[in-house]
Amino acid sequence: VSQLRAGDIGAVAKLSVTSTGDTLCTRDKPMPIASILFPEPAFNEAVHPKTKADLDKLGVALSRLSEEDPTLQVRREADTNETILSGLGETHLEVAAEKMLRKFGVGVDLETPRVPYKETITIPAKAEYKHKKQTGGHGQYGHVFLELEPLPRGSGREFVDKVVGGRIPKNYIPAVEKGVNEAAQEGVLAGYPVVDIKTRVYDGTYHPVDSSDICFKIAGAQALKKGLSQGQPIGNWRGRHLEPNFD
């Protein structure tokens, strides 16, 4: 057809620079129209490709789907390493999965997302750990004292150096911090990452010959684990406490 009048419905194929919600008009007569307010997604599923070939094409397919349908949203859940597809309901996501197979040749399974649990502490705690080994020749020695303090939800983790008087040489403090951060990846309650705590290293001792970065890294990690056990650890999910329910 050469033209469409008011009330007519037409279709134009293979438009490459438009997306859902765009208005088509001439340059000399622009017709700005208020943007469409799409509903927020209310249902989530984890997307798992069926084969390695499907995995290679999954990113492009999901990107195209979300461009065509703004009510679909895609994100990567870093804590569980899953790709999450969000939509308006279970049927909506099932239709999207069928469309991925039909239009892009990508087969996927939709599954309930894994819950990204976290751990934290509820009371302040102190802990000490001395890493000491002597097997002939140079030994191993690292000794640290830590203070742990719970932080408000969503604060993450903080590390503070409060050592004075050279009790631990400054060049060993980064090793202590590294040990603390690595140990915090697996909490003492159920092995989930530890969040929302402030860790202070405030004292320790060293040996001029036997101390090294690895010794203070080990001491920092073990001291943190001891402190977590003493801090009344709890599990939580995105800031919500998980406690036993005996109803």
UniProtKB/TrEMBL annotation:
Gene3D superfamilies: 3.30.230.10, Elongation Factor G (Translational Gtpase), domain 3 (3.30.70.870), Translation factors (2.40.30.10). The keyword Secreted does not apply. SMART domains: EFG_IV. InterPro entries: EFG_II, EFG_III, EFG_III/V, EFG_IV, Ribosomal_Su5_D2-typ_SF, Ribsml_uS5_D2-typ_fold_subgr, Transl_elong_EFG/EF2_IV. Pfam families: EFG_III, EFG_IV. GO terms for molecular function: GTP binding; translation elongation factor activity. Keywords: GTP-binding, Nucleotide-binding. One of its GO terms (biological process) is ribosome disassembly. The keyword Zinc does not apply. This is Translation elongation factor EFG/EF2 domain-containing protein. It comes from marine sediment metagenome.
